[in-house]
Amino acid sequence: MPVFFAPFSEEHAGDEDLQPNADEDDTAQHRGLAGELCAELFADAQARHAEEEGDDGNDAGSRQRHQPAILRNGKADREGIDAGGHALHEEGTGTQRGGFLGFLAPDAIDQHLAADNTVVYGQDTHAVHAAKQISRTYAMPLVTRFYGIWDMMTKKDNLVNRLRYYPKLQAYGVEADMVLMTNDGTRGDEVLKRSGNKSRKIFFWRNGVDIPGAPAVSLGAELPLNKSDTVLMTLSRLQAGKRVNLAIDALAEVVKSHPEAKLVIVGYGEERKNLEEQVCALGLEKHVIFTGKISHELVYDYLQRADVFLSLYSASNLGNPLFEAMRCGKAIITVDTGTTGSVIKNEANGILLPEKELSCLPEEICRLLSDEDERKRLGEGAKRFADENFRTWDERVAAEIREVTALLPPERN
Prior knowledge:
Number of helices: 16
Distance between the termini: 35 Å
Structural class: alpha/beta
Mean pLDDT: 76
Helix content: 25-40%
Largest sheet: 6 strands, parallel
Number of strands: 15
C-alpha cells in the first residue's frame, strides 16, 4: 500500500521577482540547484507505483517545485532538467496548493535511501519539515532552502498573522546541516536569527545574474517606438506590490515637459486590467506600451532599449530585474525599501528615493531624460557594481553544489 509522503505548496510571492513570464524573479534560475540536485528517488518511486497500481497520473504536471530534492553522490540525474534547472522555467500559477510530493512505496524508500550516501534538500517552508523527517529517519545530511521572505514582509506583524503563518515561521528555525536563504533585500538573514536557527552552515546569497550577450532579435516590430522616443521601463510581474501604478502616475507629469517619453511595461499579472484603466483615465494611451509576457531570453534585448529603468517595489527592489538592468548599464531610479540601499547608492550607481519622497519621482525622471551624460554616468556606475559584485548563474549554482556536496563523507564527496 502506498504511503503519503508529505504535502507541499507552490505559494511564494517573493522574488518573485522574477521574470515577467514567471510568478517569481527568474523562477527557474532562482531555483537553479533544484534542477541540478533533482529528486531521482521520487521519480523512480512514482514510476514504480504507477506500474504497480496502473496509475498514469504521475505526469509532469503532478511533479511540481517544492519537493525535498535529493543529491546522490553529487550528481544530478533526473532526465529532462539541465544544470540550470531550465526545464522548470515554465509559467506557474504561484498559488497552487494541496499538491503532493508523491506516493512512495516503503520498500522503494529503503531501497534508494539505504543504498548510498544522500543529501536531502528541502525547498522552502512547505517542504522543510518533510525533508527534516527524511533526514532524521535515514541519518542523512539536510539542506533547507528559502527564497527570501517577500510574502511575510507584506503581512502586518501581529498576533493573528503570527498564528496564521506559524508553520512558515517555525520552518525558518529548523536546524539543518546547511541553510541557504536568498538575499532579495527582504532581510531573510534577520528572520533566521530571530527564529533561533542554529544550523552549522548558513548562507545568505543573491541570485546569479548572467552577463548580456549580443542582441537576439530586433525589437522594432515588438515595440512601436520612434528613434526620438525616450523610454522608461518597468520589468516585473504585474501585481500590487510591484507598484507599477506609481510609474504611470509619474508619467502623467513627465509628458508635460517630455512629450516624447514612453513607458514600456514588461510583464503580466493580475493588475494589468487596473493598470490599463489607469492609463486610460490619465489619457496616456499613446505613451504606454504593455508587452505582456516575454521569454527570459529577450529580457536583455528589451532592457537595452530603456533610457531609464524604474523599480518601485514596496518590500524590496533587489530582484533580478534590477540586477539585470545594472548588468546592462542602465540609469536606474528605485525606492529605498528593504535593503535596496545596500546595492543602489544614491547618485553613484542610481537614484535611490526614500519612501517618503516618492512625490519627487516625476522630477527625477525629467532630470535624467534631460541629461544624457548623467544617465551614462549612473549607468556606468551600475554596471561597474554589477561586474564587481554579482556572480553569473553558473558561478552561483557551482558554489551551491560545492557546499552541498561537502556535506557528504570524503569518500563520497
